[in-house]
Design a protein that fits this description.
about 475 residues; mainly beta; Neuraminidase; Immunoglobulin-like; 2 domains; 33 strands; globular
C-alpha cells in the first residue's frame, strides 16, 4: 500500500511539472493536432525555429528611391539581410553532359516584380499573376492611396499590393488588390480562362476569389464561401468544369467550390486525409489528378486512393510507398518565406539559336477556327517553317493546360498529344488537321496552349478553347 501511495505521489508530481511547462490544456489534449492553434503557431506552423525580434520598421523617408506616399508603383529592393539557414544548404546533382549539346541558359527579365511569387499562374492575355501572403507586412509595390485595404488583424490600413500582374515579355508590373490573405492557397482556371482561387490563411481560409484575363481587371472576392477553412489545400477541375477542393490543415474532407455569392453548408469527409496526418502533417497539398475515366487519383503522405467524386466512394486503395512522405511539408521542409523578387527566364537547350531553331514553326493565328475546339471533332489550322520544309513524320501537335503553381506543386497541369489526321503542304506552309480530345475527362473545358513541334522544336503557343 505504501508503495502504491509513493507511485501515486510521484505521478501527481510529474503531471504538475508537465502542466507547468506545457499548460493544462495541452497536457490533457495529447491529440491536439486535430484542434485549433494560436496564430503564433500558424506563423511558425512546423515548429522548431528560433524566433528573433523583428528589426525596427523603416519610415518611407529612410528608403532611398521609394515611391511617394500618394502614388502607386514599385519601391526599391532593400539591402539583403542575414542569410537564412536554408540559403546555406548545398546540393550536388550528378548529370551526364554531352559536350556537343547546349545546356540552356537563364536570363533576368526583371530585378523587381514587386511581390514574391509564392503563387503563380499564366493567363491567356499574356500575363503572369503572382501573389504572396499578406502576413509578412509590406511588399515592394504600392497600391493607389485611394485603393488601400484594411488589415483585419492589425485593424489598420495596408497600402501595399500583395499581388501583381506581370508582363513576362516586357517586365512591366501592375499592382492588384487582394482583400483576404492568400497564404498557401489553391487555384485553377475555369472554362472562360478566369483564375478561380480558393482558401488561404486567417480571414482568407474560406474565401473564393476570381480574376478575369484583362489588362484592367482586379480580384473579386467571396469570403465565407467554403464550409471549412482551406489552408494548404488542393483545388482540382472536374470534367463538368466545376472545381473540388481537397484537404488543408485539419480539413480532412473535400467540397465543391460554390457559385459566386453562394455558400457551402457541408463538406464530405475523406478518411485518407485523416489517416495520413502525422506529427508534422505530411499530407498538406495532397496530389490530385483527373484520370481518363473521370475518377480522381488522390495521394497524401505515402499512399493514395482512386476516388469516384460523383458517388463519393473510394474505388481502390493504393498501398503505401517505401521511403516516407512525398507531400508538403516533407517535399519542401526547411524552406523559408519566399523573399526573391527577381524574375528569370529559362531558355531550354532546344531553343539554342542553331539552324533547326531558326526553323522554328510559326502558327498562323488567323487560321484558327473561331469556335475553338469541339470534343471529338477535327481541328484544322495552318503553320509554316521559315527556312526548311518539314514532313509529317517531323511534326507533333500538343495542347497544354497551364497550372496554378505553389510550393513546388502545379495543380491541374495537363499535357495531351493530338493525333494528326491530315497534313497538306503548299507554297505558303502546311494545313494540318488533328483529332480534338474525345471527352472532357481527357481535357476539361478551358483554354489550352497549343504547340506545333517540328523536329522537336516547339512553336510559340496559341490559346485555344475546347468546349
Amino acid at each position: 500500500m505504501a508503495r502504491s501511495s509513493s507511485l501515486l505521489r510521484t505521478g501527481v508530481l510529474a503531471m504538475a511539472l508537465l502542466a507547468s511547462f506545457l499548460g493544462v490544456e495541452a497536457l490533457f489534449d495529447p491529440f491536439n493536432i486535430f484542434g485549433g492553434r494560436p496564430e503564433s503557431d500558424y506563423l511558425d506552423p512546423f515548429g522548431g525555429r528560433p524566433t528573433k525580434s523583428p528589426p525596427p520598421p523603416r519610415t518611407e523617408r529612410e528608403e532611398t528611391g521609394a515611391a511617394q506616399p500618394n502614388t502607386m508603383g514599385l519601391t526599391r529592393v532593400p539591402p539583403l539581410g542575414e542569410p537564412s539557414k536554408a540559403s546555406h544548404d548545398t546540393m550536388t546533382i550528378k548529370v551526364t553532359v554531352r559536350d556537343d549539346k547546349p545546356d540552356g541558359a537563364w536570363t533576368i527579365v526583371s530585378d523587381n516584380s514587386g511581390v514574391s511569387a509564392m503563387h503563380l499562374a499564366i493567363m491567356r492575355h499574356g500575363r503572369a499573376i503572382m501573389f504572396d501572403t499578406a502576413t509578412t507586412g509590406r511588399s515592394l509595390m504600392r497600391l493607389r492611396f485611394d485603393n488601400c485595404r484594411v488589415d483585419p488583424r492589425r485593424h489598420k490600413t495596408d497600402c501595399w499590393a500583395h499581388a501583381v500582374e506581370f508582363d513576362y515579355t516586357t517586365g512591366a508590373v501592375r499592382p492588384l488588390k487582394i482583400l483576404t490573405d492568400t497564404w498557401c492557397s489553391a487555384g485553377g482556371f475555369d472554362a472562360e480562362g478566369n483564375l478561380v482561387q480558393s482558401g488561404g490563411y486567417f480571414e482568407g481560409d474560406r474565401t473564393v476569389r476570381y480574376l478575369s484575363p484583362c489588362h484592367t481587371c482586379d480580384w473579386k472576392e467571396h469570403p465565407y464561401s467554403l464550409f471549412e477553412g482551406r489552408w494548404y489545400a488542393t483545388q482540382q477541375v472536374l470534367p463538368d468544369g466545376r472545381f473540388a477542393i481537397f484537404g488543408g490543415r485539419r480539413a480532412f474532407s473535400f467540397e465543391h467550390l460554390p457559385k459566386p455569392g453562394m455558400f457551402n453548408h457541408q463538406s464530405v469527409p475523406l478518411a485518407l486525409l485523416r489517416d495520413t496526418t502525422d506529427d508534422v502533417e505530411n499530407n498538406l497539398y495532397p496530389f490530385v489528378n483527373l484520370l481518363p475515366d473521370g475518377n480522381l487519383f488522390i495521394f497524401a503522405n505515402d499512399r493514395g486512393i482512386i476516388f469516384d467524386h460523383r458517388s463519393e466512394i473510394v474505388i481502390r486503395d493504393i498501398p503505401p510507398l517505401p521511403g516516407g512522405a512525398r507531400n508538403y511539408p516533407a517535399s519542401a521542409i526547411g524552406v523559408d518565406f519566399p523573399t526573391e523578387v527577381r524574375v528569370e527566364r529559362f531558355t531550354p537547350p532546344y531553343l539554342d539559336g542553331r539552324r533547326h531553331v531558326a526553323n522554328r514553326p510559326i502558327i498562323d493565328p488567323h487560321s484558327l477556327p473561331r469556335e475553338g475546339m469541339r470534343y471529338g471533332a477535327k481541328y484544322t489550322f495552318r503553320f509554316r517553317t521559315p527556312l526548311d520544309p518539314v514532313v509529317e513524320a517531323d511534326v507533333m501537335v500538343t495542347m497544354y493546360a497551364p497550372p496554378f503553381t505553389t510550393h513546388g506543386y502545379s495543380m491541374n497541369q495537363r499535357l495531351l498529344i493530338l493525333s494528326v489526321t491530315s497534313y497538306i503542304p503548299d507554297p505558303q506552309g502546311y494545313a494540318i488537321t488533328v483529332d480534338a480530345p474525345g471527352k472532357p475527362e481527357l481535357a476539361p473545358p478551358a483554354y489550352y496552349l497549343v504547340y506545333v513541334l517540328a523536329k522537336d522544336v516547339p512553336s510559340v503557343a496559341v490559346w485555344v478553347k475546347i468546349q
